[in-house]
Amino acid sequence: MLNRKTAIVTGGTAGIGKEIALLFVKNGANVIIFGTNRDRAAAALHELEAARVNDSQKVLCQIANVSKTKEVEETIQTLLSTFGQIDILVNNAGITRDNLLMKMSEEDWDEVLDVNLKSVYNTCKSLARPMMKAKGGCIINISSVIGLVGNAGQANYAASKAGMIGFTKSLAKELASRGIRANCIAPGYIETQMTEVLPQQVKEAVIEKIPLGRIGKPNDIAQAALFLATAPYITGQVLAVDGGMVI
Ligand code: NDP
Fold it and tell me: Is the CB of 187 under 6 A from ligand 1?
């Protein structure tokens, strides 16, 4: 489905991002993942190489901090000179620094906003012009149901994820006439290293609120990303992939 397409997946070294990268590779795309941890990156790259379906497919890992504007600009410039064009951008890298607002440090506010939201400005700004020149492109931003409904103890995270949604809708309007689509996925509760730290009671309480009765898997989100990557008439939307959590 993605033969001859080239995709960047930020935070593709673990969890949801790695699963999206793997599914894109299995569907024939060249895939470049971004991450900051070298060991995780090397392990992920190994998995991506093994998932290739044709010999000409390229997979690559870039050690790049998505919150740093210059670092992202330079990395994307290098990739454009190697690959010619980037067809799909998945902004998936994200972190949490949870706390009640009363106890939330300025540092935790800034870090979450920088990694989760400024990163989206960084990558989209670097790719908007090249995608316009190519008269096409697909941007998929991994937001969260928390960006839709909020959550006590996650004001920074919720603000970053809600910000992504407003950003995506604006970009969809700005770039539609050039054939570029921008959509969000809002995952519910997905089994990754981000959520494994939660106490068992909290996990059980969350499952009770999921009509489909189970925690999501990274592949549930990857399937949605593949759908959006190949859905030519969908732009500016937020697709909740949450087992019905926020119906
Ligand atoms: P993980 O913690 O499992 O993975 C996060 C990924 O982001 C890693 O690959 C990490 O790589 C990368 N990353 C973190 N900071 C940076 C940075 N500064 N620059 C580049 N890469 C970075 O998270 P999930 O897979 O659970 O989450 C992925 C996305 O989905 C996030 O945006 C998250 O907010 C969102 N989401 C997750 C949900 C869940 O239940 N798990 C629910 C709703 C949304 P490295 O460590 O190498 O930097």
Answer: yes
